[in-house]
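Hi C.,

You asked whether I'd gotten around to modeling the 167-residue construct. I have! Everything is below, sequence then structure, no commentary in between.
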Amino acid sequence: MQRAQTVFSRRPEAALQDDATASARWESGTRIVASHANGTQIPSDMPCELGGTGDRVSPGWLFRAGIASCTATTIAMAAAADGVDVTTLEVQVDSRSDSRGLLGMTDADGKRVSAGPSDYRIVVRIAAPGTSAEQLRAVVEEGLHRSPMQHALKNAMPATIQVELAD
């Protein structure tokens, strides 16, 4: 990490990169397979109550897993940069959603129900022998500050949508 910081300090343009594309392909029903260019594939499906089989993780869970993984990664990086020897680091992310939004439903007053989570919660469990609670909290805060997914959630960016019609 220190070598990367040195290079990026000298040449900031070297830090700019296109993120790996995530692709998703519909299989049937609500079953989707997400793919990475390196060949990694992650199948998802909706719960039975929403038309799926319930035998795979849902896209919403993948979203929360991404937040948890990104948060844990950036906390670990912040700890390493501060010389904190972490022995335990676990991150849990949960949220609350109204499935009516996913189904395109409206409230009693005719207002469209939001399809997104109404809130989310992050619980960080961390330990580093010989490190004060104050220093561990500072490491967690620094990790959250560095997290690209936390930034994307707090500072929603506009999306460009391009529709291509298949033959």
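If it helps when you're writing up: Residues 21-57 form one domain.

Thanks,
B.
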